[in-house]
Write a structure and sequence with these properties.
heterodimer; A: 143 residues; alpha+beta; two-stranded antiparallel sheet; two-stranded antiparallel ribbon; 16% strand; elongated; B: 100 residues; mainly alpha; 2 helices; 0% strand
Chain lengths: 143, 100
């Protein structure tokens, strides 16, 4: 049914915002990780979002031909931040280099908090949009 | 002309009854089929919602909002079929109240 398409779009938005929240949580948890899986300090993960491509089903192709867009959004890729690691002087640390500097992850907790808040607010906005669509459908049923 | 008119009138009445008889099962089956199909859709959606809830409870499905949305879809479809049922019942009762 047609009014379900708005729900699917909002659902994709919620899924991606939840994914951003997961990534922020991962970054925060690894804010002082000096040994990542790939070796060296942990690198900040960033989520790249993109518009979801239409599925090659008949309905979606027809909708695209009619100029309707109901694909939504999806996570395109997760990219590592290439900015240099934070150098902290801790000569006694096992991971310290010859000069006594330890390379800590390039994570700024304040910036992560901002992304976290944004993800939460956008999730709420998606819920709001979904509820609005639901209200409209219910109002139509009261005719 | 007059005789032909009577003939035409008598010719019209007999096909009118088979016409309605032929149309009635077709129209009835059409609405019946539609209603049945809609009921099946609603039932499927309720079942999907239920299985999603089960999946969430067993940890198979991680997305809370997907489950809620499938439940909402089921609810909306049910509301639609309920509205259709109320409308047709209302029309039937209106017919029953009609003075003959």
């Amino acid at each position: 049914m047609d009014y379900f398409s708005a729900m699917d779009i909002s659902a994709s938005g919620m899924t991606t915002q939840r994914f951003r929240l997961d990534t922020v949580a991962l970054n925060m948890a690894n804010a002082s990780t000096t040994r990542s899986i790939n070796g060296g300090p942990y690198r900040r993960q960033q989520v790249i979002l993109g518009e979801r491509a239409m599925q090659p089903t008949f309905n979606q192709m027809l909708a695209r031909e009619q100029g309707l867009r109901y694909a939504g959004v999806e996570v395109v890729q997760i990219q590592e931040d290439d900015s240099p690691p934070r150098l902290v002087l801790e000569p006694g640390h096992p991971d310290a280099d010859a000069r006594g500097f330890v390379r800590y992850p390039n994570i700024n907790p304040v910036g992560e908090m901002v992304i976290l808040l944004e993800a939460v607010r956008l999730y709420e906005a998606n819920v709001r949009a979904l509820n609005a669509g639901k209200e409209m459908a219910l109002r139509a049923l009261q005719i | 002309m007059a005789i032909e008119g009577i003939g035409a009138a008598s010719a019209i009445t007999p096909p009118a009854i088979p016409g309605t008889q032929a149309a009635q099962p077709a129209a009835g089956s059409g609405f019946d089929m539609w209603l049945q199909a809609q009921l099946n859709t609603v039932n499927d959606q309720i079942m999907t919602g239920e299985s999603n809830v089960r999946k969430l409870a067993t940890g198979e499905e991680g997305n809370l909002h997907e489950v809620m949305i499938s439940l909402e879809k089921a609810k909306l479809s049910f509301e639609l079929i309920l509205a259709v049922r109320n409308k047709s019942l209302e029309a039937y009762q209106e017919m029953m109240r009609m003075q003959i």
